Amino acid sequence: MTTRTGLTADAGTTGKRRVLISGAGIAGPALAYWLHRAGYAVTVVEKAAAPRHGGYPIDIRGTATEVVRRMGILPRLRDAHIDSRRFTFLDADGSEVASVDPRALAGGAGGQDLEVRRGDLAALLHTLVRDDVEFLFDDSVDTLDQHAQGVDVTFRSGRRDTFDLVAGADGMHSHTRESLFGPEEQFHRYLGYCFAVFTMPNTFGLSRELVMWNTPGKAAALYAVGDDDEELHAVLNFHQPEPPSEALRDPGAQRDLAATVFAGAGWKVPGMAGALREADDLFFDTAAQIRMPRWSSGRVVLVGDAAYAPSFLTGQGTSLALAGAYMLAHALTAHRDHTEAFAAYESGVREFAAMNQALAGKGAARLFPTTARALEQRNTMLRELLTLPAAPAPPAHSALVLPEFAPVP
User: Fold this and answer.
1) Residue 161 per-residue DSSP state
2) Element (H or E) spanning 248, and its range?
3) Which residues, in sequence order, are bridge partners of residue 96?
4) Which of 6, 108, 118, 156 to pair with 77, CA 20 to 30 A apart?
């Protein structure tokens, strides 16, 4: 049964342009906030039954920090900041290679960058807009039929409605993108890694820290985001020349593949592999990017990972989603004609997205070296970090200058 929260499309929204946003993760609610502020009547549909909690920690950096400041939520995100104390890297036998300040590894902008639980950001964004926006939980878009006056939408629940515009904010494996542009394979750029993320008991006494074990082509990490947390975020990552297509569709095959790849590994990896078998929150996917020649078709546009997923190797997925949502909303306020607005959005964001996607190679080299030589080079770099000042933030993080946002009269 569909769960609805927020406004309904009644006389209170008569005369307003109506926008449907598919996806209530990060990009969707952020876009909803700015479009509501601009005077649009906004509906958000989400296949999950409620806002999603939990999830791995995410970063808010550079331009995205300015976006959340303009939304008025920066103080609350600072309160939720994880503030990890150290990242410790281990060799194959579990011995320590280096223990470094996280900012020395990732770079930072004068202490302004933030790391928060993804669920905390999603809940905050939902709270920010839930009284002004219609939410349809436990539902999703089934079909889109565009015509001169709008987009006729049929939902999985059987509901039908017509909107002036539709925005796909439904992630890397976007159904909206597939309906408009075709199969994901056309736009999916596999980066050579698979990963499994899950939670497991914190029996190691870890606190506000990440510990990562590496051998060539394999990595295992345990991350405690708070003090005395009972659970850890666990990650098993491995190099795979070709994506394991069959395993991506079968959770049992995913568990078998990870167990096979990490068989015989040292340190705490056997216990992690056992915990993966029992985990009820396993998320398994490939490290990949979405690269598209255009992000809109007619009255439908894509935002966030659906259009330009950079992969977790960049640490910029959330920041790109927040900045992209802002720029799309701004374009729609500056250009009444949606075709002109979508063109302005692409023109404003495409170079920024490309710069951040280009960071993936550096992330892979630092976290997941695939050869013994590359691993030794990485370890040498880590040891040198102990004697160097914190690295500056990559220019890509702040390459986009946000225009001032002013609603259309």
Assistant:
1) E
2) helix 245-248
3) 90
4) 6
